[in-house]
Structure formats: structure tokens, C-alpha cells
Design a protein that fits this description.
Structural class: alpha+beta
Radius of gyration: 25 Å
Strand content: 5-15%
Largest sheet: 5 strands, mixed
Bound molecules: protoporphyrin IX containing FE, the ligand Nc1nc2c(c(=O)[nH]1)N[C@H]1C(S)=C(S)[C@@H](COP(=O)(O)O)O[C@H]1N2, molybdenum atom
Helix content: 40-55%
Shape: elongated
Distance between the termini: 65 Å
Length: about 375
């Protein structure tokens, strides 16, 4: 069905603004996530506010999902321009049109790969993070070029009286109606996903892969003890936590000995990179107290898990995290002994750490 909505500059410009805002939010929060997980040498990820990563990554995933209808609507509106002949009338226009390849291809890749990732689906041979990260830079570069190239024409099209009236489409959509449809679909997707991190919306979270209150002890498990192959070692009475590396005296603690140390409580979220989060009350030993007992000389610590292999079997605590009073090796959650799938005998939990760094089944603190 051809209508004059297809190719309409004002509709394309309005959708462009919405997409620009969504992609900018995703880009900023995505780069934040990258800095939190792979900090360059000049950067130290802070421990406060304790819920910062929960908010940035929650926004990233919800806004990314909400961008999908906007992008589809935009592609529908401008589609005929892609197949127009001749494709360009000047060198400048040809250059501008070439940037549409990384813009559209990159945009669709980010939405598709992000969606696959939060659903635990990795149908590609390369690293999701690496690809998603670099494609984000390329896409945002192309988007910036596109905004500059279209600035004048878009301003003109959006000016009151700047665009001629159009006939409604065969289905009866006016400009306003079509924009309402796209923005409405976008808002609806956000509403049906946000409950994976916004407690009061949980019951609406039908599109979220995880419900934050569903799982053993009332919150999700991302990898079970069986999947991590630690069911035997985690329950072994011979279990010991080792504190070694750059220390004055190596120390070893059984779970009972850890239990006998001063216990500290903190309410902290698990904020998964996949966007779900759940806040819980944790109880355990402060990492800084254990380091003091070992006479630790270093400030950074590599946390090792009983889990032998896999990207999440170790994580690093930076100097702010090792000294923060709320960085704990938790023995309990919400007044109960940690469930095996949540990291029994002990797990790391610290303020403002991405979920992937909240190492479960901790066996060793290696002072660096
Ligand atoms: C449906 C849409 C999207 C979803 C569901 C999504 C999901 C995700 C997830 C789950 C991560 C964490 C990956 C990890 O650390 O394991 C991530 C990271 C990231 N995302 Fe997205 N994303 C989406 C769209 C976008 C868009 C539109 C952009 C940029 C304009 C973007 C830029 C980034 C960046 C820069 C990172 C950091 C990658 C890194 O840690 O190296 N994402 N995204
Ligand atoms: N050893 C180990 N620790 C781990 C993981 C893992 O796979 N192995 N997954 C991490 C991720 S991605 C998240 S989101 C949190 C989830 O903790 P939970 O399963 O107790 O909710 O644990 C983290 N700790
Ligand atoms: Mo996670």
C-alpha cells in the first residue's frame, strides 16, 4: 500500500528525534557498562551510589527494547528512498547515503544482538560484548553524521507549516496517528519489560526474560551450581577460603571460622548486565577485615571461585571496592544461609558492581 506517509519528511524527522534520544541513552549507558566491566588504567569504577549500575543497565536494556518499534517505523517511512533511482545526484549526497549502511546495519545489529543476549541466545561465533561495543561506536558515528547532514531539512520539515498536509494512508493513518502508534508501541514494550528491574512493575514484565522475585530464596539464578560444576566442592566440609598473594601472612578460613568473624549487613542489589536486578539484605564478613587479618599490602584483589572455567570464575576488586565497608563475602541472604545456587558457602557482594562481578562460590582472595 502506497501512501504519502511513506517518504514523509516530517514523520521521518519526528521519529529520527525519538531514535536519536534512545540511541544516545543506550550509548551512554552502554559505555558506562563497558567502563564498569573493563576499566582502562586511568579509570576507577566507584562504589557509590550503590545502585548506579542497576539504574544505568536497567535503562540501557529497557530503552534499547523501546527503540525497536521506532526503528521499524522509521524504516517503513523512508524505505522507498533506499530503492530510489538514481541513488545520488552529487558526490556529497553519495557520501551521505553511504553512511546509511553502517547506520541502518549497525542499528539493527545492536537491537538484534542485545535482544538475543538478554534471552541467553548466542547464535554467533564472536564475543557479544566486543561486537556490540564496537558496532555501537560505528553506529553512533554514522548517526551523528546523519543528524548533521539532515539538520537543516529536518528543522524545515518540523517547523509549523513547514510540511504540506498529507492524505491519510489507505488504513487511515494520519501523521499524528502513525507517530502515536510508533511511540505507543515503544512505551508499551518499555512497560512490559521494566518490571525486570522496577519492583512495582514486576507483574507486568511479561516480555522480560527474568522476574526479579522468581528463583531460590526469591531472586533469579543466572548460573546454577550444577552448571558451574561446583555441587561437590561447594558442600565439601574441607572447604577453606584462602587469602594469599601480596600479604604478610597467608590465611585460611573454614566457613565456621568466617561465621565467627564480625558480621556486617548491607542491602545491595544484584544488577545483571542483562538488565534484571534484585535488591536483597546480605550478611557476612567485610572483605577489608579479612585483608587486614592477612596483613594485605596490596589494594586490589582477584576473587576466585570454586568454578574452574568460564569468564565469571574470577573478578577483580579495585582499591575503592576493597576498602568499602559494604563489600562483603556473604554467608547469608535475607536471614537464611545462602542457597547453593546463590553461591554457598560464600559469595562476593559489593556496592555498584555489575552482576558478572558478584562472584559466587568464592574460594580465594588473591591480593595483587
Ligand atoms: C534491544 C536493544 C539493546 C539491548 C537489549 C542491549 C543489551 C545490552 C547488554 C545485555 C549489554 C551488556 C553486555 C555485557 O556486558 O555482557 C549491552 C552493552 C552495551 N550496549 Fe547494548 N543493547 C541494546 C541496544 C544498544 C544500542 C542501541 C547501543 C548504542 C547506541 C548499545 C550500546 C552498548 C554498549 C556500548 C555496551 C557496552 C559493551 C561492553 O561492555 O563492552 N546497545 N547491551
Ligand atoms: N562463579 C560464578 N559467579 C557468578 C556467576 C557465574 O556464572 N559464576 N554469574 C554472575 C552473574 S552474571 C550474575 S548476574 C550474578 C547472579 O547471582 P545469582 O545467581 O545469585 O542471582 O552472579 C554472578 N556470579
Ligand atoms: Mo549477570
Amino acid at each position: 500500500v502506497r501512501s504519502r506517509l511513506r517518504g514523509d519528511e516530517r514523520t521521518a524527522a519526528s521519529l529520527g528525534i525519538a531514535i536519536g534520544v534512545a540511541f544516545a541513552l543506550c550509548f551512554i549507558t552502554g559505555v558506562v557498562s563497558h567502563l564498569a566491566q573493563s576499566p582502562p588504567s586511568w579509570f576507577t569504577w566507584p562504589t557509590r551510589p550503590a545502585g548506579l549500575y542497576r539504574v544505568t543497565q536497567g535503562v540501557h536494556v529497557v530503552v534499547g527494547i523501546a527503540a525497536i518499534p521506532l526503528v521499524l517505523a522509521k524504516l517503513w517511512v523512508v524505505f522507498l528512498k533506499f530503492v530510489r533511482w538514481p541513488p545520488a545526484r552529487s558526490v556529497a549526497e553519495a557520501l551521505e547515503r553511504v553512511t546509511l549502511v553502517p547506520l541502518v546495519g549497525g542499528g539493527l545489529f545492536l537491537l538484534g544482538s542485545g535482544l538475543a543476549n538478554i534471552n541467553g541466545w548466542y547464535p554467533w561465533p564472536f564475543s557479544f560484548r566486543l561486537a556490540h561495543y564496537w558496532v555501537a561506536w560505528i553506529t553512533v558515528g554514522a548517526l551523528t553524521t546523519h543528524v548533521i547532514a539532515k539538520w537543516v531539512a529536518a528543522r524545515e520539515a518540523l517547523r509549523p507549516g513547514g510540511a504540506a498536509p498529507i492524505a491519510p494512508t489507505a488504513e487511515g493513518w494520519s501523521r499524528r496517528g502513525f507517530l502515536g502508534l510508533a511511540l505507543g508501541a515503544s512505551g508499551l514494550l518499555a512497560l512490559l519489560t521494566a518490571g525486570q528491574t522496577v519492583g512495582p512493575l514486576e507483574r507486568l514484565a511479561v516480555l522480560a526474560p527474568r522476574r526479579p522475585s522468581v528463583g531460590p530464596q526469591g531472586f533469579p539464578v543466572n548460573r546454577t551450581a550444577a552448571e558451574a560444576a561446583v555441587r561437590r566442592t561447594a558442600r565439601d566440609p574441607g572447604y577453606r577460603l584462602t587469602v594469599d598473594g601480596n600479604v604478610a601472612s597467608e590465611r585460611r578460613f573454614s566457613r565456621a571460622e568466617l561465621q565467627a568473624q564480625p558480621q556486617h549487613e548491607a542491602v545491595l542489589p544484584i544488577a545483571c548486565v542483562e538488565g534484571w536486578s534484585a535488591s536483597r539484605r546480605w550478611r557476612g564478613v567485610r572483605v577489608r577485615d579479612l585483608l587486614a587479618l592477612a596483613g594485605a599490602a596490596g589494594t586490589e584483589v582477584r576473587v576466585h571461585s570454586l568454578q574452574r572455567a568460564g569468564a565469571f570464575s574470577t573478578s577483580v576488586l579495585n582499591r575503592w571496592q576493597t576498602t568499602d565497608p559494604d563489600t562483603l563475602l556473604a554467608l547469608e541472604v535475607d536471614g537464611e544461609v545462602l542457597h547453593l545456587d546463590h553461591g554457598y558457602p560464600i559469595r562476593l557482594i559489593g556496592p555498584n558492581r555489575p552482576g558478572v562481578h558478584q562472584t559466587k562460590w568464592v574460594s580465594r582472595l588473591e591480593v595483587l
